Amino acid sequence: MNADELAQIDRAHFWHPFTQMADYEPLVIERAEGCTLYDVEGRAYLDGVASLWCNVHGHRHPKLDAALREQLDRVAHTTALGASNVPAIELARRLAAIAPSGLEHVFYSDSGATAVEVALKMAFQYWRQRTDPRPRKSAYVAFTDGYHGDTLGAVSVGGVERFHAMFAPLLFETLRLPAPQTHRLPPGVTNETACDYYLAQAEELLRREHERVAAVVIEPLIQCAAGIVTHPPGYLRGLRELTRRYGVLLIADEVAVGFGRTGRMFACEQEDVSPDLLCLAKGLTGGYLPLAATLATDEIFAAFLGPYESSRQFYHGHTYCGNPLGAAVALASLDVFAEERVIEQLPAKIARLEEHLARIAAHLHVGNIRGRGLICGIELVRDRATGEPFAWGERRGHRACVEARRHGVLIRPLGNTLVVFPPLAISLDEVDHLMLAIEQSIDPAVA
């Protein structure tokens, strides 16, 4: 089929996520190499969105490709219900070894949302099955504008009104804390006092409600889908201390920020935090296959052990839980992290990105730039002096992304914030290309 035929069928039959199909204009990708995507007409695009924040080592990495082919010669899938497979066993061991301390047990699923769903259900069941049960603990604490996926449990703890308001009647109760942001502080709050200000709010809520709170759910350091909202330094560590003090579990959703994104393998490492439950997906397989993992402590795991007739096991599962192909490529990805010294090479790339951001920050219609590591958001505003935003319906962020395609770069906006989220494998020259294309796309978008 030619490009026009593919586009016609795409519009007619392929219902795309988070996409208004009434005005959808197809971009059909045919192949990729490294950090570059190619459409069916041969046009090249630097993958500035890491194929929705999951690609780590670039496309068609020889080691990852080989791992998949080798596993195909053994077995593509076998159930994890009462059975196991070699790659999933080895991956569980490797994840426990590199994760923040104390997270020894790995439960597999198939997406970030399901990893969070698993953590929510584990927390709920844990409080009912520990040696001193506390069945009142059934509520969760989460953050304004948080995003944890689109299953109903994940939506219940999510806080992006535009995405989830429609489903409110289906959701369970969540106690909400304000996002501890740094770019729009409340009156009287400074960068120096922001951490204490937001922690005081968290402590007040936990002091009042801890007897019925099962867990606090947080995206460590950065709420990505909120528009790259960065937390004050020290907030994550302070929250961990509060959850311990008040006897509440901490669920860290590192689906987006894990696997090197913030400059460390896991964002929790930046503040020396070990959560009770850690949710991983996206970059787990290097962006190759859908695989997720929820890591738990010995204490949580022990609450699910007992004789068969006690029915204490975790009643949750997925058909492709621990899929051998996904586990095999995830193992290869971890090998690449070590062999190519991926984390060690990030500072130079981050520094080059920050050089460009410092220049772009002076643009008349750039109201704020925020991020960490190889994640950043460039917020477009109508009036830089007052911070007046563009109306949502004007789609200025979308316009800039369309313009960026003309410069050979593929990015996606969050409202009027341009999100920069390239593969970790991006070269310094590619960082230059990416950021210059974005800079050249701003003026046409805001004119």
Structural features, described:
- The chain is α/β, with parallel strands linked by helices.
- It is 37% helix and 18% strand.
- It has 2 domains: 3-57 and 342-446, Aspartate Aminotransferase, domain 1; 66-339, 3-Layer(aba) Sandwich (Aspartate Aminotransferase, domain 2), CATH 3.40.640.10.
Q: What's the layout of helices and strands?
A:
Elements: H1 3-13, E1 29-33, E2 36-39, E3 44-47, H2 50-53, H3 62-72, H4 86-98, E4 103-109, H5 112-129, E5 139-143, H6 152-157, H7 161-164, E6 174-177, H8 194-209, E7 213-218, E8 222-223, E9 229-230, H9 235-245, E10 249-253, E11 277-280, E12 292-297, H10 298-302, H11 324-339, H12 342-360, E13 366-372, E14 375-383, E15 388-389, H13 396-406, E16 409-410, E17 412-414, E18 417-420, H14 428-446
Parallel strand pairs: 3-16, 5-6, 5-7, 7-10, 10-11
Antiparallel strand pairs: 1-2, 2-3, 4-12, 8-9, 11-12, 13-14, 14-15, 14-18, 17-18
